[in-house]
Amino acid sequence: MDNIQRLRPDGLVSSPAFSHVAVVPPGATTIYVGGQNSVDADGALVGADDVADDVADQSVRALENAGVALAAAGATFADVVQWTVLFVDGVDLAAAYGAIAPLLASDEPPLVLGARVAGLGVPGALIEVSAIAAVLR
Asked: How confident is the model at residue 50 (pLDDT cuts 50, 70, 90)?
């Protein structure tokens, strides 16, 4: 959505991975995507064989699931205002972010909140993502 202003103000760290402020114009429809992890359509966890190798696979699948949810509401990754990313403590963050960075690449990246947690609701899940998006209708 071209009308969302994503700002990286002077005085705050400049990162190609995230913006600091987003301004959504009046009249936009807000879309909330609940927590998505790496389960398939049948509810089976994808990438749960080896924790060391699977955080990248789980990260990609969680993001793909979020993409399906966004599409159901008529939105895309480009419409995301903010991502929330939860990682189970101890996973390789570089591997996780490295796997999903190409899917999220943008000249005006969304806001990102990342946190390490003790565990997630799905046993064996290493990552969970949620999003807030906005589209003009």
From this structure: low
